[in-house]
């Protein structure tokens, strides 16, 4: 049997937030929320874990920095030292002030681009990927909660009853379709 | 009004001042025979006088920045910023005294057994200027009358704007409405413009002129970067102290997180300016310019690089994560390290120019630092007792109370 999912639609982000609080305290697990704009403060309510993008950024930055230093050592010191303004060109350490701006740029380049690419990849929103959105209206003026039955140990009717108390404007239950 | 300086805090402050005094007296007894003794005392008065004045001035700048940008989140910590800024009044008094003594002593001229051993401001000494074409060419910038005219102007502007902001802030508690808010907005914008010029030119006069032959256009921003960083650090420490004792209930993790971000960002600003200045001189390698850095690296190698590394690496690595910026223990330790690091920065701006290779950190330095720190803390806490810790009628008060990031 296909997995069932309930979609609850709201027309106001504050109503959705208070509704989500009520549902979560009632033991319902909300899998996701679709909204036209980031709803401030919804993450802790539905239990979205804090993003790990910061750690990724740090590692990417470190990669860029190390690659830059490796490049200086290999290209500017060992393989092809160039005399620029009489600077000590046979020692990485003594010539390091000259390399700091480039090291900085490499760090920023890797962190920024890598972070953007990984963000798009993780969200499956790279250019050309199909939209993963059960309700196109959530890109306009509607807010939708997704409640998957497989993540809840409650009867569907019970969840329906709970949702109805939260100022919902539309409820729909259907088979869960993974778009991608 | 709700905040009172506890007897424990008073004991700690006066204890610190007493220890500082004892340390200073020991220093005077031990070093009074040194040739550099007088110069050392003057240098330290200038270092500590400027360092603590700069913390207050940076807070005044930050206050004006919040008004001019109409920032909401910082309303809850506004009284703390005002309290830190309130030391400008004391700082102005102390700096005027130091500058006056130096002026009357021909720039801190000292001689031992008939030969000249030291100056703070060698350009204040007519005998030096008469034989020094470079300094003579810097007239009228480096002349007594110009120095005093602009110094009084800076102090007057800082003093008037501080008292104005404070007065309107207290008045707003009673009156409410947006009239005072827009007045603050206009005044703050005006202050930022004036401060933009004054922060550079004043640091050229007060600090850069110690090495009268050398100059750097970036110097003012460099000093300003350090100033801003120490202000944010001090504001953080005062907030943490107040919160620990149960005050500032409305200030939540998000406010502390935001002040932590300022510390992180301004540390980077300072490091960036330090390196920008250093690298340009290092690369150009023009003898009369690079001597400034050569001298420091030759004679103060450890202090100089350790100061830079601590002020750069410690906030960068430790304050990078979100959790660290919300952790009271980590923040307190980092803040104290940054404050000491930036004191050493001001020390490195002054001492090599005044004492040459004979500078060292001993009883005199520690003693005067403790005395100034005690006075500073007392002045800040005393201002905090004078008004409610939470503003009442600021238009963005509600936004600040619900600040959540």
Short overview:
Chain A has 180 residues and is α+β, with helices and mostly antiparallel strands. In chain A, 45% of the residues lie in helices and 12% in strands.
- Which strand order does the major sheet of chain A show? 2-3-1-4
The major β-sheet of chain A equals:
4 strands, antiparallel
The end-to-end distance of chain A, rounded to whole angstroms, is 19 Å
Strand content of chain A: 5-15%
* Secondary structure tally: strands of chain A: 4
Report the mean per-residue pLDDT of chain B as an integer: 93
CATH topology of the largest domain in chain A: Alpha-Beta Plaits
Largest interface: A-B, 12 and 10 residues
Which of globular, elongated, flat, extended, rod-shaped describes the shape of chain B? globular
User: What structural class do helix, strand and pairing data of chain B support?
Assistant: mainly alpha
Radius of gyration of chain B: 21 Å
Overall pLDDT score of chain A = 88
What are the segments of chain B in which pLDDT stays under 50 over at least 5 consecutive residues? none
Q: How many discrete domains of chain B?
A: 1
Helix % of chain B is over 70%
Helix content of chain A: 40-55%
Describe the structure.
The complex is a heterodimer of chains A (180) and B (405). With 180 residues, chain A is of the alpha+beta class. Helix content of chain A is 45%, strand content 12%. Chain A has two domains: 4-50 and 134-175, Alpha-Beta Plaits (2-Layer Sandwich); 53-122. The longest helix of chain A has 27 residues, at 53-79. The mean pLDDT of chain A is 88. Chain B has one domain. Chain B has 15 helices and two strands. Chain B has a two-stranded antiparallel sheet. In chain B, helix 4 runs antiparallel to helix 7 (144-175). The radius of gyration of chain B is 21 Å and the shape is globular. Chain B starts with 6 loop residues before the first helix and ends with a helix. The chains are: A alpha+beta (180), B mainly alpha (405). Chain A binds chain B through residues 40-41, 50, 54, 58, 85-87, 97-98, 100-101, and chain B through 275, 278-279, 282-283, 285, 320-322, 404.
């Amino acid at each position: 049997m296909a997995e069932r999912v309930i979609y609850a639609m709201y027309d106001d982000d504050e109503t959705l937030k208070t509704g989500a609080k009520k549902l979560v305290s009632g033991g319902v697990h909300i899998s996701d929320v679709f909204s036209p704009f980031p709803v401030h403060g919804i993450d802790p309510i539905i239990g979205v874990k804090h993003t790990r993008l910061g750690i990724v950024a740090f590692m990417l930055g470190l990669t860029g920095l190390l690659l830059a230093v490796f490049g200086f050592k290999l290209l500017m010191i060992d393989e092809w030292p160039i005399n620029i303004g009489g600077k000590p060109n046979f020692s990485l350490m003594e010539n390091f002030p000259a390399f700091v701006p480039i090291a900085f740029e490499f760090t920023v380049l890797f962190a920024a681009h890598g972070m953007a690419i990984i963000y798009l990849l993780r969200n499956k929103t790279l250019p050309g990927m199909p939209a993963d959105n059960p309700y196109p209206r959530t890109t306009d003026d509607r807010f939708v909660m997704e409640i998957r039955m497989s993540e809840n140990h409650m009867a569907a009717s019970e969840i329906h009853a709970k949702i109805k108390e939260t100022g919902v404007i539309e409820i729909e239950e259907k088979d869960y379709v993974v778009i991608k | 009004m709700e905040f009172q300086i506890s007897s424990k805090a008073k004991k700690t402050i006066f204890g610190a001042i007493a220890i500082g005094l004892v340390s200073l007296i020991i220093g005077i007894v031990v070093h009074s025979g040194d040739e550099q003794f007088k110069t050392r005392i003057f240098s330290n008065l200038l270092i500590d006088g400027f360092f603590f004045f700069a913390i207050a001035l940076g807070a005044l700048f930050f206050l004006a920045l919040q008004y001019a940008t109409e920032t909401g989140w910082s309303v809850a910590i506004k009284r703390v910023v005002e309290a830190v800024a309130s030391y400008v009044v004391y700082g102005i008094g102390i700096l005027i005294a130091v500058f006056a003594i130096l002026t009357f002593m021909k720039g801190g001229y000292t001689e031992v057994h008939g030969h000249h051993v030291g100056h703070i401001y060698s350009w204040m000494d007519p005998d030096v200027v008469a034989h020094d074409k470079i300094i003579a060419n810097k007239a009228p910038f480096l002349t007594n009358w110009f120095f005093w005219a602009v110094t009084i102007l800076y102090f007057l502007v800082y003093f008037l704007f501080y008292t104005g902001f404070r007065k309107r802030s207290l008045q707003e508690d009673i009156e409410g409405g947006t009239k005072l808010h827009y007045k603050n907005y206009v005044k703050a914008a005006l202050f930022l413009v004036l401060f933009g010029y004054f922060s550079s030119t004043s640091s050229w006069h007060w600090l850069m002129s110690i090495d009268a032959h050398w100059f750097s256009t970036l110097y003012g921003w460099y000093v300003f970067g350090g100033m801003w960083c120490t202000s944010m650090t001090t504001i953080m420490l005062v907030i943490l102290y107040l919160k620990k004792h149960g005050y500032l209930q409305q200030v939540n993790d998000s406010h502390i997180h935001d002040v932590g971000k300022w510390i992180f960002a301004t540390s980077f600003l300072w490091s960036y300016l330090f390196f920008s200045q250093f690298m340009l001189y290092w690369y150009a390698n023009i003898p009369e310019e690079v001597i400034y850095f050569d001298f420091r690296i030759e004679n103060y190698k450890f202090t100089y690089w350790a100061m830079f590394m601590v002020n750069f690496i410690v906030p960068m690595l430790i304050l990078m994560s979100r959790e660290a910026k919300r952790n009271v223990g980590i923040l307190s330790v980092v803040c104290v390290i940054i404050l000491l690091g930036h004191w050493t920065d001001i020390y490195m701006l002054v001492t090599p120019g005044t004492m040459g290779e004979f500078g060292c950190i001993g009883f005199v330095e520690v003693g005067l630092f403790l005395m100034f720190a005690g006075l500073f803390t007392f002045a800040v806490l005393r201002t905090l007792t004078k008004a409610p810790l939470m503003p009442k009628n600021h238009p963005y008060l509600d936004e600040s109370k619900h600040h959540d990031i």
